[in-house]
Design a protein that fits this description.
The chain has 11 helices and no strands. 78% of the residues lie in helices and 0% in strands. It has one domain (3-258). It is mostly helical.
């Protein structure tokens, strides 16, 4: 991406960030669900670690990476709604008459979502620490977890953009997202150790990108990280993110030709 395209992307991202900051209630709402997972699920299932296989004696330590990743997923899958709103208002078409980079028009809300995900992740990690969670992997482990969440957010944010461009109906986006969110969450190790999951669920989780982010983040946060595990899962997420952005850009070009 050229320097001009990067500058245009940042300009468009700032535009979207300002829109969010004018309605700070959305920032509060975005943290409500992670807080529910953190304090309600953390206390409800805290004795489940006694079953073994969690790699820790604290369920909260196991749960925190799952909450960070699930929050990234939950916010990114709705990126397409923002794109659809731009189409319905005619804003996107007006920008098409300007010299602004087409990549910037398509990817600005993914970047904005990534900034929001990073902020949200830091808040969750701080709340987890206040609740008694420990992070043996230190700052490096925390950074890997946040980067994994950002890559996952990029994957689903770009895919959501592509979906918005293709279906152009709110009901379709809502229906597809609702259908996908629960399976993606529960067919992963978000709440349960792999050894405690049914075999078929465990095998599906191996191909679930949501689980890749959790596995990479959890491993990085241990006192003795498995670098091979972190690199393979993180590398797979990076490749998937690049493919999703490419698909998003392709669908945008198709939309541009149709207007």
């Amino acid at each position: 991406m050229s320097g001009q395209a990067l500058a245009h992307t940042w300009y468009m991202t700032q535009r979207q960030l300002m829109s969010i900051l004018r309605q700070p209630v959305f920032l509060v709402i975005a943290l409500v669900q992670p807080v529910i997972w953190l304090f309600l699920f953390g206390n409800l299932f805290k004795k489940v670690v006694e079953l073994g296989g969690f790699g820790t004696t604290s369920y909260l330590d196991y749960l925190i990476p799952g909450i960070v990743v699930m929050s990234a997923l939950g916010s990114s899958v709705w990126a397409g709604m923002g794109t659809l709103e731009e189409i319905e208002r005619g804003t996107l078409n007006r920008f098409l008459t300007t010299p602004v980079s087409r990549n910037a028009l398509m990817n600005a809300n993914v970047v904005q979502n990534g900034i929001g995900t990073a902020f949200q992740s830091v808040i969750i990690l701080l709340l987890g620490r206040a609740a008694g969670a420990t992070y043996p992997g230190g700052a490096a482990g925390l950074l890997v977890l946040v980067v994994a969440a950002l890559l996952l957010g990029t994957v689903f944010g770009a895919l959501s953009n592509a979906l918005g461009m293709m279906v152009r109906r709110r009901e379709s986006i809502i229906g597809i997202n609702t259908f996908l969110l629960l399976p993606l969450t529960f067919l992963s190790t978000s709440f349960m150790a792999p050894g405690q999951m049914p075999g078929w669920m465990r095998h599906i989780a191996d191909f679930n990108p949501v689980n890749w982010a959790m596995v990479a983040g959890r491993s990085a946060l241990t006192s003795d990280p498995d670098r091979t595990l972190v690199l393979t899962r993180g590398g797979a997420l990076l490749l998937l993110a690049l493919a999703a952005v490419a698909l998003s850009t392709r669908t945008f070009r198709s939309y541009q030709k149709s207007v």
